[in-house]
Amino acid sequence: MHLSAENLAARRGEDLIFSNVSFGLGGGDALVLTGRNGSGKSTLLRVVAGLLRQEKGRVAWTGKDGDSDRPAGEASHYLGHRNAMKSELTVAENLSFWKTFLGDMAGGFGLGVDEAVEAVGLAGITHLPFGYLSAGQQRRIAFAKLLVAHRPIWILDEPTAALDTSADQLFAQLITAHQKNGGIVLAATHQPLGLEKAQEMRMTGFAGVSEGVWG
Ligand SMILES: Nc1ncnc2c1ncn2[C@@H]1O[C@H](COP(=O)(O)OP(=O)(O)OP(=O)(O)O)[C@@H](O)[C@H]1O
After folding, report:
1. pTM of the prediction?
2. Which residues does the UniProt record annotate as the domain ABC transporter (predicted)?
């Protein structure tokens, strides 16, 4: 499996936010985007997820079965700043909706709703409306959405915002487990996620990017 981005450029409104961004990730790889506020991290994630059209360049993934040059969004989970859950529905109803709506892609199976909630440390609250949960609990349930349907690519925008230290560690373990299963992770963050073997790409706005290794 391979996710590749070549010479991407993106515009928001009138402004070119970045250009000439390229990377290639294979199964098990993680790329962490860092950089100041407004440097274009969320914009790049949204382009890769297929939620925003790029100005230039291409992004594509090739599946295990040789299914090549497909839009990366087809194979991705996207966890944005917002949690994509309905406040008035219960946790179980929200996650069941996503499990049915997304379904599993070839190559893996999502967890059941109860198992996924347990995996994010919140067993026993699936009957509560999502809107009753604390900000950190809501973020944990949003993360459980990644577990209920199989997608090889996880695109994560500030996944640990509003989380306590134990949740930070839990998310790092879940992301690492995804990598060990051959998954790809692309994440934007202002704080180290504690991932093993993650590459870093520092977004510097229109001036370009520099690459290094995180941790
Ligand atoms: N809809 C829009 N129209 C015009 N400009 C936008 C729009 N959305 C974002 N921008 C601008 O695009 C630039 C990049 O924003 P982006 O959200 O990608 O940055 P970021 O690196 O993720 O920032 P942060 O660290 O604050 O989350 C910013 O200058 C922002 O003001």
Report:
1. 0.91
2. 3-211
